[in-house]
Amino acid sequence: MGMKIGAKEWAALVFLMLVWGSSFILVKRGLESFSGMELGALRIVITFAILLPFAITRIRKVPMASLKFFAITGLIGSGIPPFLFGIAQMHIDSFLAGVLNALTPLFTLVIGVAFFRAKASILNVVGVLLALAGAAGLLMSVHNPQLGNGILYGLLVVVATVMYALNMNIIKKHLASFDPLTITSLMFASIGIPATIYLFAQSGFVATMQSNPQAWISFGYVAILAIFGSAISMVVHNWLIHRTSALFASTVTYMMPIVSIAWGIADGELFLLGYFLWIALILLGVYLTNKVR
Fold first, then answer.
1. Where do the domains of the chain lie?
2. Which of 16, 104, 147, 235 lies at a CB distance of 3.0 to 4.6 Å from 253, suitable for a disulfide?
3. Torsion of CA 167, 171, 173, 175, to 10 degrees
């Protein structure tokens, strides 16, 4: 790949694994008081507020021609996925969301080959097929009667991973000259105002905060998710993309299931040993997808 991967890069990868692997249980806690749409908007608004000072000082240095790419990455990388995960996790267990999120490197490769002139080997193609087969098998075998049929909602997570993958390729291709804090702050600046308007004017967020004492606890979980899972981690992730590649940076998503599964089991989610077969197939496929071409 022509890149150096040292201790700092691996440390960043482990940090992201722990933080993002824990994000699914935080989403679950947030959903105890808020709807999926409210949770997604709240996560964006908190992150937007934290990063706004950085966006204000940096936007003047950005050429007009680059602003469209910040808007695109903001929408597909940070704007739509929080809503998809929020809605999906109302109907699927948190560990399943974490496992399906591991498909991101797979789609990073597919999109890179299709639109960004990346190259793939036969081994990479085999990896794609194995991971897709594992995801399909897991979706069909996991069923929680209390949550309902999770196949459709699991597909929302898959759509989110496609968006993450496209976002990473765009950043590497069109925003490589900007520092990670500029990228992250302007991404959220492009989506923060619409999310704020929706949260306070169109959703039931304010009424929930006023009437439900539990809502403040859920708010705290979402705030932790926004600060660490969005603001800080996105800066670290964009730094990692710059230092390595979109594909290496995306490998954090097949390390995350270890953390998300552990949280799910600790929280009493039903996890059968048979699931390991499908999860192993997904991770093997993603590993082969990530092999140097």
1. 7-289
2. 104
3. 150
